[in-house]
Write a structure and sequence with these properties.
single chain; two-stranded antiparallel ribbon
Length: about 290
């Protein structure tokens, strides 16, 4: 049984980030919110095995009307939420700090409105920065054990602001994670790829861009870290954005039945024999070296 799981509370989002499957309108699977009873079923079965739950996949998890109920039911398991930060102001900052959440990742991909909104389209830099500051303050005042992390997707429009991001992280007591960008379409790589080599996921080969990875026939994710979409579909990993490889449906079967089922066995075998032939694997960072991701 897995030691970690990604659980998608919703695949809806308030932003239109161009290299996100949700924001760009690339998702073809239905949109919606996870039912709390489905989440309870997942947690009840997996609780003896799970070390960590990521309460996000596609979409903005804090848009779920019952967001804090999910955190409450998962207590006892380390939980991580990744958010675009637009729902942290007001009373939510203190609620997050006191919720029992283990880690909060807030995306801040620029240090002024101009650079930030190049990628975080429809986003408000000032609102996100203020939300981070409010969470940091609530952590201090409540003696919370919440780990606050700022995620900075490095691209050619914001790499000159890494120093300012480091300064802001120090001021708020947050960890700064500098991360390379996944780019959905090869013809847009030049638009985003920064100059700094360690933040480039791609290199040119024969006039085209390819991932900086040998894509060896191995992947630990398939044995330790599945993803469950908002409607209960079990998929192999977080690179299957559109749910192209559904291993099973939790409305029909238990997680154990799906995890040990024929579809999973066949898919794992295909990765161990011909990983390069699988579309979702060709933009995957597993096994990549020398790149921050």
């Amino acid at each position: 049984m897995p030691v970690a799981a990604g659980i998608e509370l919703t695949n809806l989002c308030n932003l239109k980030c161009p290299e996100c499957s949700t924001g760009s309108g690339g998702l073809t699977r239905p949109a919606g919110y996870m039912d709390l009873q489905l989440f309870k079923k997942i947690v009840d079965e997996l609780r003896p095995y799970l070390y960590n739950i990521n309460l996000y996949f596609q979409g903005e998890p804090m848009m779920h009307p019952q967001f804090f109920n999910f955190i409450s039911y998962g207590k006892g398991i380390k939980m991580t939420v990744s958010t675009n930060g637009h729902f942290l102001s007001g009373g939510n900052a203190e609620k997050v700090a006191r919720s029992g959440l283990h880690r909060l990742i807030v995306s801040l991909d620029g240090m002024d409105q101009e650079s930030y909104s190049v990628y975080r389209r429809n986003g408000e830099f000032g609102k996100v920065r203020q939300g981070i500051a409010e969470v940091a303050k609530a952590i201090r005042e409540s003696d919370s054990k919440l780990n606050l992390e700022i995620q900075f997707l490095v691209n050619r429009h914001n790499e000159c602001q890494i120093g300012a991001a480091r300064k802001f992280a120090r001021e708020t007591g947050a960890v700064l994670r500098l991360k390379s960008m996944q780019i959905l379409k090869n013809d847009r790589i030049d638009e985003w790829m920064p100059a700094t080599e360690s933040f480039k996921r791609y290199r040119k080969r024969n006039g085209d861009y390819v991932l900086k990875s040998r894509l060896s026939n191995s992947c630990l994710r398939l044995w330790i870290n599945p993803v469950v979409t908002w409607d209960g579909k079990v998929i192999p990993c977080c690179f299957d954005k559109d749910g192209d490889h559904v291993m099973g449906d939790l409305s029909l079967n238990s997680f154990r039945e799906i995890w040990n089922g024929e579809k999973y066995r066949v898919f794992r075998e295909s990765v161990l024999t011909a990983r390069k032939s699988i579309e979702i694997c060709r933009n995957c960072t597993s096994g990549m070296r020398g790149v921050r991701y």
